[in-house]
Specification:
mainly alpha; two-stranded parallel sheet; 2 strands
């Protein structure tokens, strides 16, 4: 029973937040193609940059707040599920004790109690699946909102400060090797945190980003 009641936390930990973000990020519209570099000109520095997703997700205050809320939601649901699981386990142990000691006055009463517990166990398993699905859906929606916000902010950042023709990610961006001079993660994280106001609701922030 203990293993089964840990299903929700296992699901939450198994679904990588970074992976969800990268998958959504990869679906975004591509930036305009950069002008071709003159052949034979080795002095030209390509106007590209990349962002380290792991660092961004651990340093961006909004991303940390989102993760904290997701974990708090998962922990609350898990605590409630564990309480129901412990109650069911106790009832099943009581039933087994009565069976071992011939405590039921009739076979019919024992059969009714067995059917009741079987139905309760089935309902509990269905509840596990339902809560797991709800948490995965909540996580997917939250990560989509987070990646939309980051994408919008990076485009604004580039218009104001970067003027890069291409900004990639170190995950899902097909980067095998890159010179550190192209890493703008620290600058982007600072910009994102400067723009993030935790007192604003998600809806207010999205409206701000669209303007």
């Amino acid at each position: 029973m203990k293993n089964s009641t840990n299903t929700i936390i296992t699901v939450i930990l198994a679904v990588a937040v970074v992976a969800l973000f990268v998958l959504h990020f990869a679906d975004k519209p591509k930036t305009p193609k950069m002008a071709p570099m003159p052949i034979g000109d080795s002095t030209v520095v390509m106007p590209i940059a990349y962002v380290t997703i792991d660092s961004l997700m651990t340093q961006y205050n909004y991303a940390k707040d989102v993760n904290d809320k997701l974990m708090a939601s998962a922990e609350t649901k898990q605590a409630n599920l564990n309480a129901q699981g412990r109650q069911l386990e106790k009832e099943m142990q009581d039933f087994q004790y009565k069976m071992n000691n011939n405590a039921f006055f009739s076979q019919e009463r024992a059969e009714r109690e067995y059917q009741r517990l079987a139905k309760k166990q089935q309902d509990f398993q269905q509840l596990q699946q339902k809560l797991s699905g709800e948490l995965m859906e909540e996580q997917a929606k939250t990560m989509k909102s987070l990646s939309d916000t980051i994408w919008s902010q990076i485009r604004t950042y580039n218009e104001l400060h970067g003027h890069y023709q291409m900004i990639l990610t170190n995950q899902g961006g097909s980067i095998i090797y890159s010179v550190p001079m192209y890493d703008i993660t620290e600058e982007v994280v600072k910009y994102l945190n400067d723009q993030y106001d935790p007192s604003k609701s998600t809806a207010e922030k999205e409206d701000t980003d669209k303007k």
